[in-house]
Amino acid sequence: MSNRPAKGQIASLPLFHQVRGQKVLLLGDGEAAEPKRRLIERAGAIVINEMSEAVDEGVRIAFVAHEDAKACEAAAINLRCAGLIVNVVDRPELCDFTTPSILDRDPLLIAIGTGGASAGLAKHVRLRLEQILPQSLGKLASAFQKIRPQLRAKYPSGTDRRRVLDEALAQGGALDPLTQGANKRVKAWFDGDKAGASNSVETVEIISDDPEELTLRAARLLGTADRLLLDGEIGADILARARADAERYAFSEAARAANYAGQTLILRRILPQ
């Protein structure tokens, strides 16, 4: 039985785990272990090196970096049986989780993973993104955190909040995150007059199951739509580009005409000529 994900699925569940002040087990030392030690400490956790201590104290996460392959296999089995989730350095087949390449724009954090296929590839994708994403992204995230209560009070409807944020953060928008100094414009943007969410219906014609063939407009609409109406067979890879929380229904004229507070996107499959 293949462990490869089915079409439209993802290979791993990406999570950001809060470990500050908690203990994390690291077994092994030397060249393989040191990067994991730095990563654990960078996340604010406390490194311990004894398996018995970890089991007794209910530690949940373990890294194994023994130089001996058999020792790694035995440790992974024992730790997993004790209820820990395990990462074994350079042995993805023994891992419950893998560690990504990290781009840090605190508090915004971007993690790039390949499921253990190629750490080098993840690193070079990160290096390219480092050149593109401005340092002020973290300050923009912090600015949003400060106004979050006021934003929720001003726009109680989640749909309204999504719409005004989508408009501001879109390419060329008032707070385009890829422009320098967007964080300095947050207060003026928030204090300005912004219309609430309006009902809208857009249609995108899908002629291929390859998401690379989506137009820029189609990709943007998929990423912001509140409701999808599926007219015909729409591929899983296309639907994966939509918001995860977008409502999805089979297309009908009644569904199209229904009063809906938000953005509706009709995805219409068109057979190629």
Name the average pLDDT.
91
Topology-level CATH name of the largest domain: Rossmann fold
The total domain count is 4
Multimeric state: single chain
Largest sheet: 4 strands, parallel
**Residue share in helices?**
25-40%
Compute the number of strand runs: 10
**Cα Rg:** 23 Å
The 3D shape can be described as globular
User: For the largest beta sheet, what order do the strands appear in spatially?
Assistant: 2-1-3-4
Distance between the termini: 38 Å
CATH architecture of the largest domain: 3-Layer(aba) Sandwich
What's the number of helices? Answer: 10
Structural class: alpha/beta
CATH class of the largest domain: Alpha Beta
Query: Any idea what the CATH superfamily of the largest domain is called?
Result: NAD(P)-binding Rossmann-like Domain
Order of helices and strands: EHEHEHEEEHHHHEHEHEHE
Topology:
Elements: E1 23-27, H1 33-42, E2 46-48, H2 51-56, E3 61-64, H3 69-81, E4 85-88, E5 101-105, E6 108-112, H4 119-132, H5 137-154, H6 158-169, H7 186-191, E7 200-206, H8 216-224, E8 227-231, H9 236-239, E9 247-250, H10 253-257, E10 263-269
Parallel strand pairs: 1-2, 1-3, 3-4, 7-10, 8-9, 8-10
Antiparallel strand pairs: 5-6
